[in-house]
Amino acid sequence: MARGTSGLTSGQARRHAQPERDLELPQHAMTLTRSVKAWLAGALLCVVPGLAHAQTYDGPRTTAGHPDLSGIWQVLGSAAWDLEAHNAQDGIPAGLSVVDGGTIPYTPAAAARRETNRANRLTHDPVRKCFLPGVPRITSLPWPFQVVQTPDLMVMSYEYAHTVRLIYTDGSPHPLPNDFWMGDSRGHWADDTLVVDTTHFNGETWLDAAGNFHSNELHVVERYTPVTEYHIDYEVTLEDPQVYTRPWTMRLPIYKRMEPGLRLLDYDCVDHLLGALSQSEGGAQ
Amino acid sequence: MNTVHVGRIAVVAMSLAAVTMTPSTAAGQGGAFEPPRTTWGDPDLSGHYLPGPYQALETPANDGWAPPEGANLGQGAAFSRFFEPDPDAPAQPRASAPSGPMIIDPASGRVPLQPWATEQRNEIMARQNQLEHLDPRVRCLPAAFPRAHLPVGYNTYQIVQGPGYVLMLYEWNHHSRYIPLDASPHPDPAIKLGMGDSRGHWDGTTLVVDTTNFTDNTWPVGHGAPPDDAPGTALTTGHGIFHSGQLHVVERFTFVDADTIQYEATIEDPDVFTQPWTLRYNGLQRAPDDHMLFEYACHEGNGRNLSLLTGTDVEAARVHPIR
Inter-chain contact B139–A274, Cβ cutoff 8 Å? Predict the structure, then answer.
């Protein structure tokens, strides 16, 4: 099985970690005027080594100076149905393409496979079997997800099938070869952007409900750039020499859920699937 | 189950063998150890942990229970694939593990089931080949509590902490719970969650977690598989103990030394048990430095196993991917 550019080193898996959470700026800073806040943000960024000039983001930051992405987030729109431009169907909204250039650059063989997937999506879509959705499909599904941020680790917990991604930000490399539905993720901050590098996919997941797919050589780089404290610009570059003629990029906003007291609830689709068994053969269409 | 995980069981078993097992303290001595603190002053629970050593949940009944005549226990090749220990894994170090029972209240050391619930449990145990009576764990439904903290060979833990919360990650079936420490209330009782809703607070250096709002489709007690020397029908494993959804669990996490967290749980369900009851054991053992939680893709590899066990074509079912 081919491996991607994962920089493997034996024995250098997850380090011993006692992650302490960076503290937010003191609350009284939030009552200052906008201009004073901007000056403070600029002054703090100037004295913290390694950070560039101030970006436009003026939301919460950790004591290390990074944007604090803690909270509950969710994507809008219908990219989960189809990443490319699509018209409405019964129960499915229309949507513009989220792909730079409009369409995914498949090889001819892969393009044919995509059409086969699409024609058989009611039976072949792994998410219709309640399988883990992979990356970046998990982000675009219309369920919320929660980010917990510590210096060594970002935990993203998704309401959909209680999926969890551990994004190691301690500098550790991808582990020894293995195949995961959600891949293995290693992240770092580049200015105000969280860059997440994910490899070690098993090739069993799709990118949306329309049959767009990848192989086990998929390499995903996500860039989470918060713009305000209420939304993140999410940009994803996908590379897979088995399937695409070149790397390609998709982008869509992620919005903060603002309801007070919100927590992730359950979407335990394994339970729904077993319920479907008792109602009819083959379950839902 | 996912083939990656067969190897993982061996890895976890070897890690258990490699870790020097500190002698477990007697029940009731927990809390004397002063743990290190986080930078914001809370006891520092963060890190990776392995489950505590196996010990019997309850005192054996010695009531002569046996499966009913002619009961189909789902025995055979498929059954044994779930319950056979990994032949490549070294045996768990039993010598230093207390023999149990974990149950400290009631004094009998038995789960205080109401009589109807004991009958129902026996019925379930006799029909393990039927999908609706099968251990929900085997269907990849949630473990609930306290089961997520009872010893099984395929679960490890990671605890992440910050001001105002504790996040517990469970390798088993990629569950997690975010535990607010802000005295916020449980949600509307109509909201049901497989792992319940947990709210926590500190009692000295003990983390106390109160959990309600459970769905009723789980077995919240019980080891993941019976021990080597007990048949699958043994009632000492907690197997087959269900709940009504009124389940209410209060857990206490207390360091007894630098590498050992004592786990205590008081379990209450007025429809099923005759009284609240409590178990306690050294449930979390600090893992080796290079430990990481691996992806546990439970359902993804499970279709054929379920079909073999129950004769139901589970793999044919489909659900809506999104609304």
Answer: yes
